[in-house]
Specification:
325 residues; two-stranded antiparallel ribbon; 50% helix; alpha/beta
Length: 325
Amino acid sequence: MYDVHGRRVLITGGAQGFGKQFARRLLQEKCRVCITDIDEAKGLETKQEFMTQFGISEESIHFIKFNVSDKAAWTTVWDEAERVLGGQIEVFANNAGINPLHGWEKCLDVMGVSAVRGVFFALDRMSTAKGGQGGRIINTASVAGISHLPLGHITSAGYNMSKHALVTMTRYFGMVEEDIAKNQGVKCYALAPWLADTQLVRSNIDELVKAGKPIVRGGVEIRSVGDYQRSGVPRALTVEEVGEAFMQSMVKDKNGAVFAIFPDTPLIEFPDNQSEVTLAVGAMAMLIGSRLGIDVFKPVHFYTIAGIIVFFLIAIVNFLISFIF
C-alpha cells in the first residue's frame, strides 16, 4: 500500500474529466496538487473551484498551462510545480488525452510519445538514485490499450496504438531485470477504464454525428453516451468510479500492473499473458498444424485444439478422482 496522504502531486490533463476527479480525491487526502492542462480557462476555473470547495490557497492547488507535446516545457512545468507546492513531486498522474478524431498522428504525439516521455521524465526527477523522493507514476491508459476496440474511422487507430504503447511502457516496470522500485524508489501502474461519461467521449460522439458517420454498435447508432448501453454493451463509467479506482490502485500498489475498470465490478488486475498465448499458438502450429498439412494456422484451429485438450484433461481428472475415491 502506498500512503498518498499529504503528498505533492502533478497531474497532466487535470482541468476536467478524470484528471479533475483525481485532483479532488487527492485534495481530500490533504495532498498538494498541481494540475496542468492546455485549456487555460478551464484549468483556472477548476483551480478556483477547488480553492473555494476546500478552503485552500495557491500552495495547495496550482494550475499551469501546459502542452505535453512541448518537450522543452517539461522541465519548466515540473520546476514550477515543485516551487509552488514546496518540495519534490511524489506522485505523477500521467493523464493528458485527446479524442480519436484528432487523427492518428496527433493521438500518437500526445498520448503515445508525450505520455511515454512523461514517464521517463518523472522517473528521472523522482528517482532516489538521482536525489528524488521516490514516488508513483500512474498512467491513464484505456480498455482500448488492452483490446482492439474499434473507435470509428481508420485514422482513429492512433488512439488505440497510443494506449497500447502506454500499457507496454507500464508493464516494463515489472518486467525489466533492474528492480526499479528498490533501486530508484519509483513504481508505475496504469488504469485502463472502459468507456466513461467525459467531455472527451461526448465530443467524439458529437463530432462523428455532425459528420454523418456515427458509430454503430449492435444495430444502434451512437448519438449519446447513453446509446452505448442501449446497444448491449456495459454502461458508461462515471468519473467518480474512475477516481475511486485511481485511489484503489495505490492501495494495491503493484509495480507494472494494469488495472482495468468496468462498471459494477471490482478493480481488475488485467493479465499479461500474451507471451504464453504466443508460445502456445506456436507450439500447436508446429506439433499439430504442420502434421495436418495446414497452410495457415488460424484462430479457429487454435481454439478447437485447445478445447479438445481441455476436454481430455477434465475427463482424465474425473477418472482419477473416481478411481481414488
